[in-house]
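Possible regression after last week's pipeline update?

I re-ran a chain I had predicted before the update to compare outputs. Posting the input and the new output here so someone can diff against the archived version. Not blocking, just want to make sure nothing changed silently.
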Amino acid sequence: MDNSVELPGDSVELPGDRAASAFALSAAAAGALGIATLAAMYAVEVPKGGPFVFGAINDATGAVFNVLAIPVILQVHQRLPKAPWTGPLKWVTVTACAAGATSSALLVFKVLDFGPSTAISVAAIVVQGTWFFVANNKLLHVEDYPQGLAKLGRFIGGALWIGLPLAGLGFLLPGPEWLRYGIMGAGFIAGASSWAVWPYWYFKAGRFLGHKHAAGVPGGAPSAA
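New output (post-update):
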């Protein structure tokens, strides 16, 4: 049974779009707060050696963000053309989000140490970045999916996958310091640019899934047929 609705001048609305929109906009807000608190931690608390209140807030927002991301990823994933790899990619990504949320929450409550929590969180980010690149690269060719949103998602995943290996290579590479720091710096810039626009993708996804520009159009509610 196809419950999708064709909106005039808009994309097809799928059941669950508007609920996922609320999660996406909430994830965008949590992600923006996470960026602000991390910046504040390094600017204010790290030089003083504590007390890391901003750091604790950042860990908490990271847990919330990962939980909020799950329904958005599931909803956007519905628009991918079906292929043997789409199901495994979806569930691996959802599992990574859940692991990242759990890791951050356990760090907040001091059940898990910083090192293991960070390793789990980074792994979760890498998996989500892979989803961003692979899924949005495919969604570029889906007619009713916004190309701007797909290109932004592909950039997030691609920049992350460029940045992390470069940063690692610069750290491990023997040779003059200027070369090592140059490579690490390039990796940091790529990775940071990916991370900085991550919440914006959720904001744009929230607008898309909420079909904001179709407000007031008759027939905008899902059909029961």
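Follow-up from reviewer: compared with the archived run. The beta strands are 5-6, 12-13. Marking as no regression found.
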